[in-house]
Amino acid sequence: MIVLGFESSCDETGVAVVDADRGLLAHALYSQIEMHQEYGGVVPELASRDHVRRILPLTRQALTDAGLTLDDVGAVAYTAGPGLAGALLVGASVAQAIAWSRDLPSIAIHHLEGHLLSPLLATPRPDFPFVALLVSGGHTQLMRVDGVGDYTLLGETLDDAAGEAFDKSAKLMGLGYPGGPALSRLAEQGDASRFDLPRPKLHSPDLDFSFSGLKTAVLIKMKSLPEGDEQAKADLAAATQNAIVEVLVAKSVKALQQTGLKRLVIAGGVGANRLLRERLAERLTRLRGQAYFPPLELCTDNGAMIAFAAAMRLKAGMVDVDSRNTAFTVKP
Ligand code: KG4
Ligand code: ZN
């Protein structure tokens, strides 16, 4: 079964073709980053309009790259949410229209399930069960994953998401949007030990996170820096990245210890962070466990993860193909 998947929840238009048995055949992606850059963040109205502009050419490209046509497609999937309402409607409408015109099932996928299962697109592929660290611009969660659709929330952020902590700190430092990659690039030239930043909830017994205090601490340090001291800014960037990564690593390890599992899957945009990848891989090796990451290009939003999640649901018999639509909720 060939699944055509659409992602349009924020500022990336993604379309992908997945074979339920053979995996990803092709994916096409357009990032609106440049368009939103001058506003310092995503402008929802512009995002929706640009999805409209891009989505059909990308669909054509993905199908062509896969060597297929619409006639080969057996099901259509789209991101149902969470995300920007207008942006989501573009992907949902196009997907439903194609499904309707071809009498195909349309499968609504939760954006986070897409991220959650995306490391299964890589090799080696983790077996169930595993712990997943889901770190994106909007979410920071630890989940126990026992199978497709079988997710248990272990802990989550009480305020800002990890990606948000990167983005907001980067903004305070006058770095561009999106802040995560910009801040981590600057951090490469910095000395993290120069600034002592808080690591909220680092030693709490639960698996929850809190990042809003860090942002305030960064603001205070930033105000104390001499104007134009670029090295100090790089040092602060390195200290900020270190603080976020240290908490993410500590809580992930705690989740593995509490569940007794050995496999950790990292998903979401912040999963592209090099320091996080290195530190987690290191810790997991020492614990005789293994860390699994999605391919770098599939860490941030993309259509492949949506088409793939739908294919996994189809294979698991979780899609009522006759209902011509499905809904999905995360437990608990
Ligand atoms: O998963 P994603 O593309 O979109 C959401 O669903 O939110 O994640 C975007 C987030 C942003 O906050 C961005 O700054 C962050 O991922 N990000 C990074 C890196 N690349 C993307 N954060 C830290 N280091 C990176 N290399
Ligand atoms: Zn995302």
Automatic annotation (TrEMBL):
Q: Which organism is it from?
A: Pigmentiphaga litoralis
Residues that coordinate or bind substrate: 134-138, 167, 180, 273
What is the similarity comment for this entry?
Answer: Belongs to the KAE1 / TsaD family.
The record's InterPro entries line, in alphabetical order, gives: ATPase_NBD, Gcp-like_dom, KAE1/TsaD, TsaD
Keywords from UniProt, A to Z, are: Acyltransferase, Cytoplasm, Iron, Metal-binding, Transferase, tRNA processing
Q: What is this protein called?
A: tRNA N6-adenosine threonylcarbamoyltransferase
Q: Which reaction does it catalyse?
A: L-threonylcarbamoyladenylate + adenosine(37) in tRNA = N(6)-L-threonylcarbamoyladenosine(37) in tRNA + AMP + H(+)
Asked if the Swiss-Prot or TrEMBL record annotates the protein with the keyword Ligase, the reply is no
What this protein needs as a cofactor is: Fe(2+)
Q: What class of enzyme is it?
A: transferase
Q: Name one GO cellular component term.
A: cytoplasm
Annotated compartments: Cytoplasm
Question: Its biological function?
Answer: Required for the formation of a threonylcarbamoyl group on adenosine at position 37 (t(6)A37) in tRNAs that read codons beginning with adenine. Is involved in the transfer of the threonylcarbamoyl moiety of threonylcarbamoyl-AMP (TC-AMP) to the N6 group of A37, together with TsaE and TsaB. TsaD likely plays a direct catalytic role in this reaction.
What are its E.C. numbers?
Answer: 2.3.1.234
List ligand-binding residues for Fe cation: 111, 115, 301
Domain Gcp-like residues, every copy: 24-308
- Any binding details for the cofactor? Binds 1 Fe(2+) ion per subunit.
Q: Name one GO molecular function term.
A: tRNA N(6)-L-threonylcarbamoyladenine synthase activity
One Gene Ontology term of the biological-process aspect is:
tRNA threonylcarbamoyladenosine modification
Mind telling me which Pfam families this protein's record contains? TsaD (PF00814)
Q: Does the keyword Acyltransferase apply?
A: yes
